Amino acid sequence: MLLKKINQKQALLAWHLFVEKKNAEQPLVERKRKHSDGSEQIFFTRTKLIPGNVKDTGTRIILDYIQAYEHSIRFGFAPEHESDLPSLFTNNSKLSDMRSFSERTMRNHISRLRKLGLISGYQFHGTFHDFELWIAPEIIFADQNQCKKAQPNTFQCTNFPLNVSFETTGNLEKKSTTVDKGVAAQPGAMPIGDGQNCNAGNTNTGNTGPQRAGKRVKERLERPLAAKNHATGAGGAGTMAKPALNPVFLSFVESFWQYAKAMLYPGYDFDETHNKLAKNSIWFGVYGSFRTDFSEKEWESYHAECMKRIDLAEAYYRKRPDKYPPMPYAEFVSGSGYFDRENKRGFCKTHDWLVKQDTWSHQRKVSDALRRARADFWLYKEGKALKRIQEKSPMQLFKYHKNRMSKLGKDALQKFYKQHAPVQES
After folding, report:
1. How many Cα atoms are found within 13 Å in the side-chain-facing hemisphere of 219?
2. pLDDT digits (tens, 9 = 90+) for 284-296
């Protein structure tokens, strides 16, 4: 029996619509606010059954389950019954690290998601072992037949109702006096040629849910893009105009992303909007908006180091099939993208890996050079060295290896002196 194919986009959309439906079913609560001038304002609020942090945890578990599901397919999982599905082995510690909160909070989230029905199966294997999770099939296997376009700019799901705009503080205000309206915040600056200015958080009145549908979830993708704009400062686009015009910088970002996409995200299909978001995250997070005062040669050297760091990241995930890199840009929480500088567990960590690798490589070169020197001195003494070595005087041989060791640094040269200083005296 062949397992069904999971459409990640439809599964996440089904979970989103499920959350919106449950939250919209909660009763309205009338509240009053008194102003300093004595006037009174009446408004309505709605307590969310599924708060944003619980929804994000559900999204994280869905993504982990999809990876475990596809891993089981690759390794030949064969179900005996239609309801026999692969499980996700995980634990509260691993999940809480991904979400950056305590294990106790994660246990509460797991309990809430089980009651809501997102987690349809749960198997506990002991305190010091991973537990198993199964996701509700109606969410994980949502497809085009269940969630399809009814008309342009609208979206309909047969399992869940449309995410219509319901009464909130914004559209159910009953004012007994005139209330000043705020001014909408302006979108931040974007580097020219590496993204697009966009209005984030656009919530027009009417049916807001269908705006998220279409070939790609454009509005959801633009929100983290605008969240990254704070890196350019509070000013307009003029701050970034100068470095963005440098075609060398743009080529660095483009080549970096193409290589990272091939090495770290081989199974993902990124469209134009995804690519812009990824390159925007790389521009700010990996290259620091190119604001560092480097020469052209120094930037080329740094770019080469970044490419090496991609190789280190690929090797890390290849050796750990149970792990995978997050999306290159922040999907739900600002700064959580793999290439975001704020994400200390993301690509930033590969810098430390590269430093360690360079240190080990240097130590290996020093050890090899010292071993070669010892061998040459011993063979020279025995008269068995190579002809070009044997023809040298003891002082020439000493200076020959001294020059080789000096290229490896002062510490390497000091080690050479401690081992072969008597040769100099002779």
Report:
1. 13
2. 899 988 888 888 8
- If one counts every other C-beta atom within 10 angstroms of the C-beta of residue 336, the result is 21
Cβ atoms of 370 and 415 closer than 8 Å = yes
Q: Could you give the dihedral angle defined by the CA atoms of residues 84, 85, 91 and 92, in that order, rounded to the nearest 10 degrees?
A: -100
What is this structure's pTM? 0.38
Token readout for 415 is 């080690």
Residue type, 396: Q
Q: Does residue 115 or residue 232 have the better pLDDT? A: 115
Helical pair 349-382 and 394-406, crossing angle rounded to 10 deg: 180
Question: What is the distance of C-alpha 45 from the center of its chain?
Answer: 34
Classify residue 329 by burial, with Cβ atoms within 10 Å: 0-12, 13-18, 19+.
buried
Burial class (CB in 10 A: 0-12, 13-18, 19+), 228: buried
Which pair of structure tokens corresponds to residue 169?
Answer: 């503080």
Residue that has been written with the tokens 């376009």 in this structure? 149
CA dist 267 to 1, 73, 235, 304, 307, Å?
A: 24, 14, 38, 25, 20
Q: SS3 sequence, 267-301?
A: CCCCCHHHHHHHHHHHHHHCCHHHCCCCCHHHHHH
Distance from the first to the final alpha carbon of the chain: 82
Nearest residue to 264 via CA among 243, 289, 281:
281
Q: What is the pLDDT of residues 384-422, one digit of tens each?
A: 888 888 888 988 888 888 888 888 888 888 888 888 765
Separation of alpha carbons 127 and 130, rounded Å:
8
3-state secondary structure 42-96: EEEEECCCCCHHHHHHHHHHHHHHHHHHHHHHHCCCCCCCCCCCCCEEECHHHHH
Count of residues making up the chain: 426
